[in-house]
Task: structure prediction
Amino acid sequence: MNQLKEAERKASQLVQDARKSRVERMKEAKTEAEQIIASYRAEMEAKYQASLYAQTNSSGAAGSELEATTEAEIRKMISDFTVNKEKVEKILTDFVCDVKIKPREARPVVA
Result:
């Protein structure tokens, strides 16, 4: 009977040890997977940043080009405004001041 109890204790100890070892392996696998994911994420972020830099900056050419065209368009709008300001004012004042007064037609008298 004692041999049976001893065998049962050994078996339960083996099962318990196996569970502990499995939990430890799972924790190690999780840690390793997190490290792999972190390195992959860093690599992809670096590629993205390089791609973004190449598209937008490329030594500042695209960004400065966009800024230059924007400034040119703003200067053109300001010059158009100053050139056409007086013409528009004249058109508006002529339109407002040109009032045509017409007498109302008399209503026919119904008997």
Summary: The CA atoms of residues 34 and 40 lie 10 Å apart.
